[in-house]
Specification:
Order of helices and strands: EEEHHEHEHEEEEH
CATH topology: Glutaredoxin
CATH superfamily: Glutaredoxin
Structural class: alpha+beta
Largest sheet: 7 strands, mixed
Number of helices: 5
Number of domains: 1
Radius of gyration: 14 Å
CATH class: Alpha Beta
Strand content: 25-35%
Length: 150
């Protein structure tokens, strides 16, 4: 669903994480970033995906990646999600939907015949200069790390 593609500059991020600390891509210049957008904390698919990244976090760090999750959940809900599943990375709280709209992952979805607005599960791999190296739209929640490290 995103309009972004390999070679594009990643849109600016200016939001907060679960602790209310400002998160910008500028903070991560010189590092590779895995930015994964997911629909909602504590839901089955999002939990499996986040735990797969947690379980393979060392492999991602060893390859030089910083991992950031992003959803429209509140910082308080992110804290509960992180604590319940021992997630070692920050989660961006995009309650005003600026980041998800800038990245083109917010839009109309269908589930069981119902239409609603939400996040399309998408992961972007961003290089040290802020350029998108990969866009993963068909996310395998159970083996997501393999898709990133391919």
């Amino acid at each position: 669903m995103t309009h972004l593609k390999t070679g594009d500059n990643a849109p600016v991020i200016n939001s907060v994480d679960q602790n209310g600390e400002v998160i910008t891509l500028e903070k991560f210049k010189g590092k590779k970033v895995v930015l994964y957008f997911y629909p909602k904390d504590m839901t089955p698919g999002c939990t499996v995906q986040s735990c797969n990244l947690r379980d393979n976090y060392k492999a991602l760090l060893d390859k030089g990646y910083v991992v950031l999750g992003c959803s429209v959940d509140s910082p308080a809900r992110h804290i509960k999600f992180i604590e319940k599943y021992d997630l070692p990375f920050s989660l961006i709280s995009d309650e005003d939907k600026k980041v998800v709209e800038d990245y083109g992952v917010w839009g109309l979805k269908k589930f069981m015949g119902k239409e609603y607005m939400g996040i399309s599960r998408t992961t972007l791999v961003i290089d040290e200069k802020g350029v998108i190296e990969d866009v993963i739209t068909k996310v395998d929640t159970k083996d997501h790390t393999s898709q990133i490290l391919k």
